[in-house]
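Form 12-C: Joint structure prediction
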Amino acid sequence: MSRDPPALLDYGRRWPLRLVMFAVFLFLYVPLAALVLFSFNDSRRTTRWQGFTLDWYRRMIADTELIAALGNSLVIALLATLISLVLGTLAAVALWRFRFPGKALVSGGFSLPILIPEIVLGVAFLIFFAHVLPWPVGLPWPLSLGAITIAHVAFCFPFVAVVVRARLQSFNREEEEAARDLGAGPWRALVDVILPYLRPSLLAGGLLAFTLSLDDFVITFFTAGPDTVTFPVKVYSMVRFSVTPKVNAISTVMLLITVALTFVALRLQARHGGRALPG
Amino acid sequence: MRTIIEFRNISKSFGDVLAVDDVSLTINEGEFFALLGPSGCGKTTLLRMLAGFETPSRGTILIDGRDITRTPPNRRPVNMVFQSYAVFPHMSVLQNVEYGLRMDGVAAAERRARAREALAQVKLEALEARMPDQLSGGQRQRVALARAIVKRPRVLLLDEPLSALDAKLREELRFELSDLQDRLGITFVMVTHDQDEALALATRCAVMHKGSLLQVATPADLYEFPSSRLVADFIGSVNLFEGHVIADESDHAVIDLPEHGARAWLDHGVGVSETVTVWLAVRPEKVELHKRGHGTPPPEIEGTPAGYNVLAGTIRDIAYLGSESVFDVALESGQRLRVIRPNLTRWDQEDFIWDEPVWVAWHAEAAAVLLQ
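Section 2 - Result
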């Protein structure tokens, strides 16, 4: 039985391309697999397999500083995500909805933080919080995280704005007008009609903001105080002394969180987007 | 008849573009009014100003004598059926129809009852639990209709209501729309570029061109007594002959058509000076075809002296459309003429063919005289 020759876009059936694809996957995932594997290694060394253990995970949980840092990171990420969602959505809706003088400038101003090198932003925030808005030291948790949260919002919300704006391009203005026509005020129409339409982009933008905030190191490094260490900064300081499998364990946990979040997001999107199929 | 809507000297410009230019118009209660014109003529802008989505640059709009020029859309006694239907995709059919009542704070039980009643009006009661993407285009349009009438507006606005549907469905919904209007007694204002739609549905039409009103009249008057060449050409198709009046009495008029070396006889006076150029407009279905081959003399036309209202030509093309046939006739002057003949019998006795010499003729009452 002869098979059809591969079609023009049938990349998966041309062996040189398959080879390249395989190599790329190897390149991407072997380091991760090694990281996960050695978090279960019964040895202080990270290079040779000695046997299975959950010891590193136990030590990780026992490390109160590390857990506190993880808590800080999660709280900051959550706050920054929520604030970014609100600001980013409002920015996107304003740019989509209204015509005003200097709109191009404002639009560019919103997306600039995406392009500015993080190190520049980091130094800028260092100076900002030293001279312009000195964040008081010794505030009760989580107010103490305010400076970092503000910095994170600043570089996260443009991503939300970009994603939301892209979605708005395909929005049918008549749906908003229909809501207004049927008696809804401008805000009511936003909540009842526009926001439901934006749901997938809010999910995507929120997820983007959350992961960006959670693993940000550079900007956080410049804005974090001694009592506000975040998870990436903490891991960095641990690695500076020695790389132990505890770091592998921590990284594995982070990996799991990220994968789980992506999975949840995909499920949510499938649930709400699933209506596209006539049934 | 009571006036319900009044546009007073309405103008609207978008930047440098004047979309609506000093339009004054009154619409009466219970009318099915159509704003008709080619795209970009300002008809949609006029409708959107009525709905509250655009604010006039100048002028006043009154509904029931109340100035609503600057009233936001959610506080106007009008509801709209949008061109895209704009059915909310994340709400069920019933939720869509209930939405306007919810905004008005109507209690849940009454809301449901009224929404179901509106759905029954458009024969959709069986589909109330469906989501919009499970509906056909025609069904979605009915949801939009039910959603708009459930609030019992003073005026229902329809933006190209049938343009997105296929021909068969369009005809069906056309009848339903006018039936619905009869039952509800609400004033309908419709925007359309489709003259058939306007003629079939409207009790009165306004023909617009470049932001101005050309003529406001009943469909029959628009068709039979157009006020200008633009209207005559836009409503149906028309044959135009340029000329000037050479005799004008109370019971007849004669118009000289120099390009064709012929004269037209009208059975009424026109009251037009002999110095101005006029256009004679004859609808294609009001033109008769007669055989001209083998030296056949021009036909006699009842009520018209011999030699008037007859031109010689040759059939250039024939389009058979089932119920009628359309003939493209080249006159000796070179002008093309459109002639429509209904196919009354299954075999046409006269059987005109390509390149056949013919006489074209029309009756004394068939032509309209246009000054612009």
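Section 3 - Comments
The first helix of chain A runs from residue 15 to 38. Residues 160 and 240 of chain A are 34 Å apart (CA to CA).
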